[in-house]
Amino acid sequence: MASRPNPAQLFARVQADDLDGALQAGLMDYVARAGDEQLLPGHPDLPQRLQQAQQQLRTAWGARERYRARAVRLARREAERDARRTPAPAPDVK
């Protein structure tokens, strides 16, 4: 079984806005457990903050995927439109 990410370390990285480091440390694998709110004195919001960071990342990743899908869709439509546009035949010069 994989080890559980260290919530205190994740919290410190999220607080420092080091989301890449938090992701590498297992932020998306974090699941709140009873007692996590007591790991860091003065930060009873630790589980909520980590879950909020997870949700914000999921939302951002979803938006990025929608943006990429839209770009592909628009490129496909443009290609279809260009394919339908046939150049006018050149005048027959004699």
Brief characterization of the structure:
With 94 residues, the chain is mainly α. The protein has helices at residues 7-15, 19-24, 46-84.
Task: Tell me what the structure shows.
By secondary structure, the chain is mainly alpha-helical. The N and C termini lie far apart (83 Å). The chain has one domain.
List the helices and strands and how they pair.
Layout: H1 7-15, H2 19-24, H3 46-84
Helix pairs in contact: 1-3
Salient structural properties:
94 residues; rod-shaped; mainly alpha
Largest sheet: none
Shape: rod-shaped
Q: Please identify the structural class as seen in this structure.
A: mainly alpha
Compute the number of helices: 3
Multimerization status: single chain
Radius of gyration: 25 Å
Percent of residues in helices comes to: 55-70%
Residue-averaged pLDDT: 92
**Structural domain tally:** 1
Ranges where pLDDT stays below 50 over 5 or more residues in a row are none
Tell me the distance between the termini: 83 Å
User: How big a fraction of the residues is strand?
Assistant: under 5%
* SSE sequence, one letter per element: HHH
Number of DSSP-assigned strands: 0
